[in-house]
Amino acid sequence: MIGALARLVLTRARTGHLPARERKLLERAEGALAPEAYAVLLAVSGDDRRRLPELIAGLSEEQRRSCVPHLKAWRALLREAWGRDTRPRRRALLVAGAGCHTGAAAAARWLASDDLGLLEPFDVHLLLTVLADRPAPWLGDVAHRLADRVRPDDAGRRWAHHALAERLVLLAGCPVPTGDGFVLAWVRERMFPERSLLWPGVAGGAPTPPRPSVVGVRIGTLVERLRADPFLDALVPRLFEVDGVGALLNGRGTAPGADGSSWSEALVDLAAEGRLERAALIDGCLSRLLRGGRPGELRAFLALLTALDPADDECAARATALLRLLPDAPSTVASFAQQRLAALDAAGRLDAGHLTEASRAVLFRPEKKLVRAQLAWLDAVARRDRDRAGAVVLAAADALGHEDTALQERALNLIGRHLRHAGEAVRGEPAAAAAALDPSLRPRAAELPGPAVSGGESTAPAEDVLPPVSEPAPMPPPPASAAEAAEEVNAVLTAAEAAEHSAAAVPRGPDPWAFERALDGLVRHAHRDRRGLVRALRPIVRAHPWHDHHDEWWGDAGAGELRFVVAVLCGEAPGDDPAAPGSEAVAHLRLQDLTPFGRVLAARLLEAAWRVVDDPPPFLLATPTTVDGRIDPAELVARLAEYERTGARPGPCDLDQALLRLDPAAVTPEVLAAAGRLDTPAGRRLCTWLAAGGPSPAEPVREVRTVRSVGHGTAVPRVVLSAPAPTVPCEPAPGFRRLLGAYDAPDRRNTSAWYSGVRLWPSVLPVHRELLALHLQPTLAAAADDGLRGGAALLPVLAEAGGAAGRAVHLGLAHALGARHPEDRIAAVDALLALAARGDLDAARLGRDVAETVSVGTVKPNRLLESLRQAAGAGAPGTVWSVLAAALPGLLTAEKPPRGLPDLLALGVECARGSGARGAVAEVTAVAARSDGGRLVRQARLLRDVLEPPAA
């Protein structure tokens, strides 16, 4: 007999409406399950979640296990029927499955799904109630398995899994999980606890009622939350061991005043109270700083160490660790260690050998501030204790080989001051080290006692060593079977999903050629055997559910939109003519806020999805023949001839994309003749395109415009280019009109570097890089004046693309050479060398662009200096000098010469000498003739003497 409670559930459920497939599942379950077990499924169907704990509590272990296969089948159905109306049943299924799984591993797998994020506070209370009657070891096992599912790369997305694992740990009273993902999620949740604080808690080994659903709830300050945190003691040591913690500790919302304290303040307060061990925090910070990493990751640990303010006794006990920070740590970390060691030395608590060790570590570093501080430390030691003058002179001699001439001069002055107190044993050593001095300083070094220093010999000028020019690799052959096409699609979708959930500044995503090959494979095999292709795609449909919307709906179209074509092929979405009125084709690909490149991709995908159902062509015309996106004109002629033979109809977007990929350099008279024999509108369109040589770009208009940053709203000036629409041989399809229309530089920062589909952009215009650079210029500029990480990621690809390299390419390169982040400056240097190797670099134009971008404040001279120095060190001093020769006139005659200009002149001396450059630069000569003796004038004189050597 079914109990009264089960009858009530049964009556309610049968009055509800369910889709046919779910009703059939319930009908099958009714005959297979005991009435008490069947009542659990009926409670799920009727959204009667409140009764689930009582219903499940009345089941035996065997009855619980009997429900599991039906719950799994139901869950699979709901995954394929994503929609708002299925949410209540999915939430109920999660609770029911957690209660019915009797094995800890199976229960953890059930709870590890993304459905956990759908639960509301009362649902979680039901879930914890269902689980609370399990033995403590079982709960602890589930908690640790669930915690292990929180990976470091998705700790922010899986906050619900972490929150549930925490509550299960408290229910079980088991040891705290300490996996990397769990630690990262713990740190994030303690900073931003608004979501999990709405969930029910655990007190006395039992779930507590959920808190009221109040938006923005934040209980106490950070230090108050940590003080009462039962996980604090177990997880604080892991803060110094898990990669990624530093970026979180130093992240948004953790600055002083955000909620009363920062992480560093909170941990210092807890150490002062005795809640945490101060020595352990100091040692943890030092160990993490010694392990190294990106400056943004280490900044939080340096802030904590600074806030702890170790006393002399604490520093003296850790002097060896502080010394180990000096050679390789970021400059801010090394500066902290240097200051503490200098303070110890001044107090007489540092071994004499440690000064020499510190000097050897610091004096070869490129950061001038550190070297100046070390020389000042050495000077103070020699002034304080004449007996140590010999050690000071020997240590300072290392700086005579520094790359910066000003620091060489400072070290030479230091040696000159203290050499007479150094003793006979060391007086000859500085003269030997002086061989590495800049030639302009060698006459002064020759006055030092010891071996004679050569005065002015220089090595013979050497030609630039530029990277080899390589041709793009051919495209792999198309997928030979439906199964192979499905594998290619799966690889693209997997890479696209990984990019969307990646914490990287610039999501990598699939390679453009892989996307094109997968799209062509779908079209080819839909034409040959659509049913077979659909069968091969079934595992992909299950692995990558179709949600009828893009996860990042506010972003641009990307490679993941390939799933829409799969959805149309498999009947999950309508494959309407995208141009037809009332088309039900997926809405997010028809939005108006897509970028011009996103519009092109969306138009191509909508067209392909419609064609694979309505009229599948034998293959796509636009599939590249090389991996960089180009199409050999002879191959496109052959493809159109095959279309003509089979009576296939080219898609307008497919044809236009193919035309934009044609390489004009590969057009021969034979190709033109073969194209002229095509007797179709598409063939005549191709002939017109080939005869015109493709689009003819218009001359851009250059101006300095005020733009506003999205991040903080500050208006900044920028050099921008706007351009009228290029002349196009044929009227483009609607999806291409914005890309091939007039371009007006935006008044806000462009964040296209954050779109996962941005890697596809160069393949849209593989031989029209000026047009591509025009659209990328806001992003390239933002890499310099707004700190946009990854803004220059596409620049090396742009340098190796086809077409003219004109104003837009060179202005973008000038911006990127002054990018804030090192990886973007490296990309700019690679692009500079690639352009020079291909003969596409206009050094005079780039130099003028550099001068103007520095003058308006977009590019900072110190960042520009790093990039140009790296390019010169890579074997291209002549190229760098040709850029500087064009940039220096504008920089030297500016109303307010920029800071760092003497360093650029010093680099010019090195590059001009190394490349054998000759010929006066009037502005350099004018500055060199000034009567003052400042560093700018001294460097100008050195450069003048190199460019205009006196007659023998």
> How many individual helices?
45
Which segments are poorly predicted (pLDDT under 50) over 5 or more consecutive residues?
11-15, 213-217, 252-260, 549-553
- Compute the average pLDDT: 86
Structural class given helices, strands, pairing? mainly alpha
Query: Would you report the number of β strands?
Result: 4
| Share of helical residues | 55-70%
The geometry reads as: flat
The biggest sheet amounts to: 2 strands, antiparallel
Distance between the termini: 117 Å
Q: What Rg, in angstroms, do the CA atoms define? A: 34 Å
Portion in beta strands:
under 5%
The neighbouring-strand order within the major sheet is 1-2
Protein name: DUF6493 family protein
How would you characterize this protein structure?
It is a single chain. This protein has 952 residues and is mainly α. Among the domains are: 1-102, no CATH class; 313-445; 482-692, no CATH class; 701-859, no CATH class. It contains 45 helices and four strands. It comes from Streptomyces macrosporus. Residues 469-480 have a biased composition (Pro residues).
